[in-house]
Amino acid sequence: MSSWRFLPVALAMVLPVLLCVGWSWFHAVGEVRKDASIAAGVVRVQTGTILTQARELLVRLVDLTAKDCGEALPTMQRWATLNPYVRALILAQDDRIYCSSAVGATDYSITEFHRWPRSMTPAGWLYTAQGTPMAPDRPAILLGVPGRDGRSGAVVVDGRNLQDIINSVATLGDFQIELTLGEGAPVRSASWTDWAGSVEPVYQEMTDSMNGAKLRISVVVPPQALGLEWQKLLLTYVPLSLLAGALLAWAAYRLQRSRQSYREQLRRAMAAGEFHVEYQPVYSQVTGRFEGVEALMRWMRPGTGLVRPDIFIAAAEQEGVIIELTQHLLGLIERDMREWDTPPGFHVGVNIAPEHLSSEDLVPDVRAFVAATAARQPLLVLEITERSLIEDSGRARRNIDTLRAEGVRVAIDDFGTGHCSLSYLQKFPVDYLKIDKGFVHAIQPDGEEALVLDVIIMLAHRLGLSVVAEGVEQRFQFDYLTERGVAFIQGYLFSRPLRSADFMAWYAGQSRPVVPD
Ligand code: G
Ligand code: G
Ligand code: MN
């Protein structure tokens, strides 16, 4: 038995575990991603609130661009103070800032501060910055609006709030969060690490904030956090998948076993010694003694019990192992007969399947059997079926001729149940005709004529064949048959098929001629 056959079983064992490992990885990623998206959502909503307030100020700033700084400053300072998110309000002429709520009238170019994108005048500002001139290391959001005559207004939103939100949301999971507005510099959570920028974010979203500027929020998770989540799921589901794997493997094993070809099962059974032979005595009414036995094969299957012979014999024929099985049977008989104490010429009937009868194996097999049982000198009777005769292409006939010349005898078994083969009967040189038990059971207790049976017996006698009646259970059947000159009687009336040892014991008790009553 080669080990590759267990591959499906092994696969059935391993597959659920592999699936579980794969599934829980995706599930872990999904869970972490879901949490990350919630965190990003909080950041997005808060940013939106801040931007909305800033935009309201921005709209109002447009009017102030018509005024000079002295006039606009008190209003700007008031607005800046009242709005909690605002760091400063700014008025600019092209790229020069001339008024700031924080420092009043001033004059410097936005290009002087390297943390601001210098390519754009405040009129187009809408981005995050890492700092402002007054607080270079505190993030900010810069929003601008075009005013009158090349002027513009701008709101510098303090990033403190945003930073706090991002930081606290980041602690919900093991998150590293980055927020970017437009083309600006990112605002990052305190948890942000050097490598965070080089890994694929577990979650990322882009939304329109205003004027087409995108608000991008990325959430990065360290690999070990994902690993931890994965591990958690694995601990829950791997035991279950192991169980599923075991069940599946067991099912696969059962399936495989049941689908394992009958051939393999029979071969295995032979190797395992699960077959034995039972012997049913055959009584000769001529001598009043038991002159022989029919060997019948039995398969005692562990866990199943006795397998019906007609089933496994038919299967063996179909699967092409009937010859092997019969060879095995002959071996078993040889072994049993070593213990026997039967006289020379004791009939041993062996059932031979059609395939075997017309094979090259038959003659050597029979010769080997005869040689092996030479000490007992049995008279071997090959019980063949009518089917064998009909299907013969010549080889069966030659085998029979050869073996009969060597002293082996041939019986037609189950006569009358198969195809009518009267013409074959005439052509084939056989010695006995075994009448099927069906005809015997048709005999009525009142002695009424069983017409077909009578004709068969007569036919056999006319052909010069001895008749063996099978399945004789009742005394009146026995009487009916012996009255008509049936030479041999086999059936429960005398004995059931017996194991070798039981047969020996039984046979030892039959030393005198018996006529049953
Ligand atoms: O007693 P029993 O139920 O065994 O017989 C069932 C059928 O099985 C019978 O028709 C008998 O001929 C067949 N049988 C029993 N043993 C053998 C065997 O060794 N070879 C073959 N070919 N048929 C057998
Ligand atoms: O090979 P064959 O079909 O001749 O095998 C004989 C079959 O008949 C076997 O199955 C055997 O067990 C069965 N048998 C033997 N004696 C009797 C009997 O007296 N009555 C019945 N019903 N069956 C029998
Ligand atoms: Mn038989």
Features:
517 residues; 2 domains; 20 strands; 8-stranded mixed barrel; 6-stranded antiparallel sheet; TIM Barrel; alpha/beta; binds manganese (II) ion; 23% strand; binds guanosine-5'-monophosphate
Description of the molecule:
- The structure is a single chain.
- The protein is α/β, with parallel strands linked by helices and 517 residues long.
- The protein is built from 16 helices and 20 strands.
- The chain has 2 domains: 60-220, no CATH class; 262-508, TIM Barrel (Alpha-Beta Barrel).
- The chain has an 8-stranded mixed β-barrel with strand order 11-12-14-15-16-17-18-19, surrounded by 4 helices.
- It is rod-shaped, with a radius of gyration of 51 Å.
- The chain binds guanosine-5'-monophosphate (2 copies) and manganese (II) ion.
- Residues 280, 296, 351, 383, 413-414, 434, 437, 470-473, 491-492, 497 line the site of one guanosine-5'-monophosphate (G).
Give the total of domains.
2
Describe the strand arrangement of the main beta sheet, using strand numbers. 11-12-14-15-16-17-18-19
Give the C-alpha Rg: 51 Å
- Give the CATH H-level superfamily of the largest domain: EAL domain
**So how many helices?**
16
- Structural class of the helix and strand makeup? alpha/beta
Major sheet description: 8 strands, mixed, barrel
Note the beta-strand portion. Answer: 15-25%
Helix content: 40-55%
